[in-house]
Amino acid sequence: MRALNEIAVVTTICIKSIPQRFWTSLSTVVAVSLVVTVLLAFLAMAAGFQQTLRGTGAKDMAIMLRAGAQAELNSGIVRNQARLIEEAPGVLKGPDGKPLVSPELYVIVDGIKKSTLPADGDLKKAPRANVTLRGLGPAGIAVRPGLKIVEGRQFNPGTNELLVGRALQKDFVGFNLGDTVKLGNSSWVVVGVFELGGSVFESELWADTPVVQDLFHRQNVFQSIRARLTGPDALGALKDYVANDPQLKLDVTTEAEYYAQQASRTSDLIQKLGWPLAIAMAFGALAGALNTMYSSVAARAQEIATLRCIGFSGTSSFLGTLAESLVLSLAGGVVGALFTWVAFDGLTGSTLSGASFSQIVFTFHLTPAVALQGIVLALVVGFIGGVLPAWRAARIPIVEAYGTP
Amino acid sequence: MTGQTLIHLQDVSKRFVKGKDTITIFDHLGLTIPAGDFVAVMGPSGSGKTTLLNLLGGIDQPTEGAITFDGARVDTLTEGQLARWRAHNVGFIFQFYNLMPTLSAARNVELPLLLTAFGRSERKRRVEAALSLVGLAERANHYPREMSGGQQQRVAIARALISDPKLLLCDEPTGDLDRSTADEILAMLQLLNREMGKTIVMVTHDPEAAKYARRTLHLDKGRFTEREMVA
Ligand SMILES: Nc1ncnc2c1ncn2[C@@H]1O[C@H](COP(=O)(O)OP(=O)(O)O)[C@@H](O)[C@H]1O
Ligand SMILES: [Mg+2]
Predict the structure, then answer these.
(1) From the CB of B204, is ligand 1 less than 6 Å away?
(2) Atom 27 in ligand 1: which residue has the minimum CA distance?
(3) Which of A258, A309, B113, B129 is least surrounded, with the fewest CB atoms within 10 Å of its CB?
(4) Can you give the pLDDT at residue B229?
(5) CA-nearest residue, atom 10 of ligand 1
(6) Which of A399, A273, A196 is nearest to B58 (CA)?
(7) Of A302, A310, A401, the CB nearest to B112
(8) Residues B171, A402: contact at Cβ < 8 Å?
(9) Which CATH architecture has domain B5-229?
């Protein structure tokens, strides 16, 4: 109790003295908040990206790629393999009795992001970004029950008609209903806009398989097969079936797992960029914190010595000084987190997905867990920046109580 | 009026090592201060007055010799033991008051009590009593910057008294005050000596201030030359 009283009052003295060093204290808070903002922006990006990709995959949807392909882009599947999957066990049948199996084509085309449009609006000068064009048929719609056409209509088979994902339409130039779009050497017309639960598909263009195969010279080739499963246990049966047929050299997994894997690869990459950058900046903030705290200890030397003279312990000076540093860095952490939240949370960004090489539109998401990481980094800076000055505070000679203040 | 020995310095030497040089401040110094004494210490700058107070107050240790307080050795105590010993036995009064600028008068006075077992209400009662003793009961919630030098020094006296120590050590307590305020403070110290029996050792440059003490010790080249004063 006595020790607590002692530490509490020294801590109060230290913290209440912060306004006496307003500018240097403020600079520490600002430096720490910048570090936290940079870190949290990256982590919020990773979290948002992960959330988008996680939301994409269904657990009762199997996705099949050529063995070892890992991503749709690298995969290749022939029509006969798709036909064999239609006869596989564990595959759900639609109301018409047909198996819900969708062979899909995956092509990368060019688009222009609204955010990179030059000031004069000259499209020729704008940088191109990769966009996914997915070729699918009526089965592709049937296997995705969450699909909503929010504007216009579904494309008609055999035509150059495009269905555009909502996120892509918002982020890219020239995908409004009725627009004519040039993809590769061919012209297309936007006839509908779709939403699909905020998933990655909303960053895609969809068109009729045979037309895409024709215009992009991919006759009879697909990149993936999706199959709706009868239940969670059905994946095993499907895997066995594929493994026992030498014509089916395919990797089978659930769509949920497929996108979760893609998500962790890319969000790992984002975090691997964010952390070192934030830590490098943290060293700068640490130098500032040390400077602030050393000047604080120097300014309070006589107060500390007087307390020691009265009988206070060096430990209380140590802890009080450390507390002051932690308060400053915590303030920086909270300001940084709030700033990130106001400036970035809910902000839409798009990035090249590591595996698909096309743009995925996602939303920055500052989760409490992410914010906590920023606060912890701030406290680490405050702790290290406080320990050495606190040590000096504890070692101030008591005779410094004398003399001019 | 003065009683048995409170402080005894026996063959005390104090040397500071500065680089290659050793400065000897005291060489086999002896001093006895009875309980209830009020000693003024005068002497030229650099003669070791503050060093003497540091030794008496357990802030610094002698290089050689023994210091006893109330019959017990203090020169052998560890740093932590000394801190506790100071908290119970010594009140310090400084030239520049040394109040905590961010704490109110009452909170400043309370500081030494935080090292005791007293509860909150007992501490409050004692702080009020100490502040009224120095005539500042109304100023309890004022901050040092809102008070004159004389008032701040009275708060410092209340702080030095609050844990009821036997010994008060004052280093130039009126060095920063005008004549009439200085006289008020000195009269207060004299009252504490006479009415409450506090033993006081006061360093001063001011012969007028020294007149309030029972006796004056002149310190020069590490030696005392004592002259009794009529109090
Ligand atoms: N911690 C120390 N280290 C080295 N020299 C010191 C120290 N403290 C005091 N001195 C020296 O001891 C001498 C006496 O100092 P002090 O006791 O402060 O004198 P006074 O208070 O009488 O002016 C001075 O020469 C001073 O420089
Ligand atoms: Mg001195």
Answers:
(1) no
(2) B46
(3) B129
(4) 46
(5) B16
(6) A399
(7) A310
(8) yes
(9) 3-Layer(aba) Sandwich (3.40)
**What is the bridge-based pairing of β-strands A148-152 and A180-183?**
unpaired
Q: pTM of the prediction?
A: 0.74
Closest listed residue to residue A191, CA positions, set A162, A229, A159:
A162
The HSE-up count of residue A176 (CA atoms within 13 Å, CB side) is: 3
Residue (of A262, A259, A248, A263) closest to A66 by Cα position: A248
Tens of pLDDT, residue by residue over A54-97, are 777 778 889 999 988 888 888 999 888 888 898 889 899 888 88
- Adjacent-strand bridge partners of A351: A360
Q: Of A374-383, A392-401, B81-90, which gets the smallest average pLDDT?
A: A392-401
Neighbours of A326 (CB within 10 A): 20
**B50 touches ligand 1 (CB under 6 Å):** yes
What pLDDT is recorded for position B19?
A: 87
Q: Which residues contact A31 (CB under 8 A, 6 or more apart)?
A: A284, A285, A288, A289, A332
Domain ranges of chain B: 5-229
Please tell me the distance in Å from A392's CA to the nearest CA on chain B: 17
Judged by average pLDDT, the poorest of A15-19, A321-325, A381-385 is A15-19
ipTM above 0.90, yes or no: yes
